[in-house]
Amino acid sequence: MGLWYTFGIALFAAIGTFLFGFDTGIATTTIAHQSWIDYMNHPSKGLTGAVVAVYIAGEALGALTQTAVGDRLGRLRFMQALCVVVTIGTVIQTASVNIGMFLAGRVLAGYAVG
């Protein structure tokens, strides 16, 4: 059991790291699609770059504040709460009708994974 347990933990951690990088980078392909550019009413290059930047800014803010919040809520409740927050952020991004709403969803999702 010891070897398989260790392997399982390492695999789970690797999948988490993969998803972290995938989520950060997937926006690059999204903002390059002409359909997204048209739907978002041709945002400026600055706003388009902000799509990636605000996610990373949200991650940084989350990394700085989550320790204090996690200590108060406890590890299990805190992780459950962050799962809800990242889901809300993802729903906002998916349902966004303008670039501001999309950026707000990116910040929220970024905070949750920070």
UniProtKB/TrEMBL annotation:
GO terms for molecular function: carbohydrate:proton symporter activity. Residues 9-114 form the Major facilitator superfamily (MFS) profile domain. PROSITE patterns: MFS. GO terms for cellular component: membrane. The chain crosses the membrane at residues 7-27, 47-69, 81-104. Keywords: Membrane, Transmembrane, Transmembrane helix, Transport. It is found in: Membrane. Pfam families: Sugar_tr. It comes from the Eukaryota. It is a multi-pass membrane protein. Belongs to the major facilitator superfamily. Sugar transporter (TC 2.A.1.1) family. PANTHER family: MONOSACCHARIDE TRANSPORTER (HXT8), PUTATIVE (AFU_ORTHOLOGUE AFUA_2G08120)-RELATED, PLASTIDIC GLUCOSE TRANSPORTER 4. This is Major facilitator superfamily (MFS) profile domain-containing protein.
